[in-house]
Amino acid sequence: MSAGTIHHFASLSRCITVVGRAALLDILDMDSQSRTSENHAEAVLLSAGAPLRCPRTMPVQTLTDPTPASIAGTLFTALFALPRALVLAPAVIGRSRRA
Amino acid sequence: VPDTASGVAPRRWLYLFLVVASTVAAVTQMLGVLQIDGLTIREATILLLFAILFAWIASSFWLTLFGTFARLTRAETLPLKPPSGVSAARTAILMPIYNEDVSRVFSGVRAIWESAGSDFDFYILSDSTNPANWVAEEVEWQKLKTVLGAANIFYRHRIRNIGRKAGNIQDFCENWGQLYDYMVILDADSLMTGKTLAHLVGLMDANPRAALIQAPAQIVGRHSLFARIQQFSSSVYGPIHTAGLAWLQGADGNYWGHNAIIRVHAFMQHCGLPKLPGKPPFGGEIMSHDFVEAALLRRAGWEVWMAPDIGGSFEEPPPTISDHLLRDRRWCQGNLQHLRIVFARGLTLPSRLHLAMGIMSYVASPLWLLLLIVSAIETLNYRPAPGANFGGIESSLALAVSHAAELGVLVLATLVLLYGPKILAMIVLLEDAEATRAHGGTRAVIMSVIFESLFSTLFAPVVMLQHSWYVLSILLGISTGWSSQQRGDRALPLDFVARGFAAHTLIGIIATVILWHTGVFGWYVPLLAGLWLAIPVVLITSSPLLGRWTQSESLFLTPAETRGLKVLDRAHALAGSHEELSADARQLVLDDAQVRELHLSLLAGTPAPPSSDDDRMRLWALREQAAREGTSRFSREDWSLLLSDAESLKALGAAG
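^ inputs. structure came back:
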């Protein structure tokens, strides 16, 4: 990238360019892997029992109660899923790994 | 990247075929015995129960046979990309605790810290409800940090234990999870070596689709006879079992609640557990959360692996049969609760199988008991068909003689399924000269397997009755609480054992009286013997003295005993030299300014639960009472309330 492009003005770049928006989204979506270079948390607050809290809620998963229909449906699906899962799983996993 | 599951599908098909084929063969044989003069409802019930139970033990047998094959052929049971280079990941080691022995907890943490170094952050996540434990934990934490000069050992106490252990972990994730890439979950009696921890982190780094790797924990470190037998079983039989599991499940693994590394991001995104509608035992908080969390990770497409050969992962067994069964009550309720989850939408078939097998591990007992009862009733009511002619031989005798061969085959097959895995495990062990020496040599291994088999034969009917009662009580809606586990060695007193196991003995005697005059009494003797001897067996096996004696006689030896285990020995040495607090830990908060300051500083970092008007009134009364007559009449709840309120503690401290 040559000097003097919009990308040298970070705030502006994040608002108006595809690359900038992607960088912004990256920050928003940042997971723990992205913070490996940050300072160790214990440096933040040595006197407390634990580092400063960094709250983020865990979404509650759905585990619907079984009904007779859902049980029948699950068994029926499993009947078909079993051969597929058993035979195709290695191929699917292998392919996704290669990808 | 190695093709991680290329062999899994054929192996699973073969496994399924072997389980089904052996069950069909046995059921056909049984049908031949039962349907001489048609099949009555009782006989049909026997056949159905027999089929279910035979399939159950056959599944276990074939699993261990697969494990044996994997071990002997040195098959790759963890086909993951190996770690490469130094990891930049941040990993937290979590030890959730609940009213545990404080010295044991902090000795364990220190032993692991010394082994793992400063590469990890340690979190002691306390849910302790006992105020004395709470304060003692704080003091021990401060001491440990000072002694080690370690800034990376943290302590957090929750005043309200929402969600029990799963809620404790969730609380960590929601507050500090974002700071970490991985977390290693430990139990209060878990130990892991630094090498294993580093290896697990490396595996997670190298395999970004893996959300969880379970390091099967070998049980070690206790000295009662029961614990030593369990430790020997874990050391000898465990490897082929875990190898079989890992070889068959591939990336569809399971989570056993601790001694596992977890990708925090995946866990946070997919393992927020719901509260099941309705009341306990089937509703409410999910008790056995581990299986469900593994199922949720698989549902989201993440991989869950087991690393059977990783080593360096340990836990301690319950010291007595009584403690073992007490723990089973909680697990039983948790696993039966999975009846509401096993059909949940979107779970993968292997996850459903994990859940179903967890349920079956407890439901098998009442089914077995039912089979025995129906078989006994059938025996007592058996009348040979009138006028049956067997060439002049008395009919019932002829009947017995004519089916001895089929019954013999069935009994033999059952014995092979039950004891075969032990023999296979022994063969695998004896193949390895080094491992054999570490278990005391060939003779010691053979003798130990024989005695262990005898013990497990006597123990099985006791477990059957106990589990049957658990299942029945849970079906009746009786829920269990959340009690802390007894982890230290102790010989049980006779009156305690007699009270706990009198019912088993009585049932054994009544069954003996009923079956005494039948021709089949002899078949029931191995089962009845376990019940007759329940009290002495529980009593004797709880003895640490007998445990040590069997050790001196080279029985039930494990490598941890013969070779030593650095991290375990260190934890024991630290616990042995641990100095208890000189005074009541709770009172120290009021009397000792340093302890109070520490408690208040930790309390400041804890979100205060909403206090009700009643609580505020009660606190005021407690402050008055403490100032007037001291705290000698404070109840546990009074202390908990007082220790949770910084303002009251400051006021009392200033007054003191």
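Helices of chain A lie at 10-16, 18-28, 68-98. Chain A has a mean pLDDT of 61.
thumbs up if we can close this ticket
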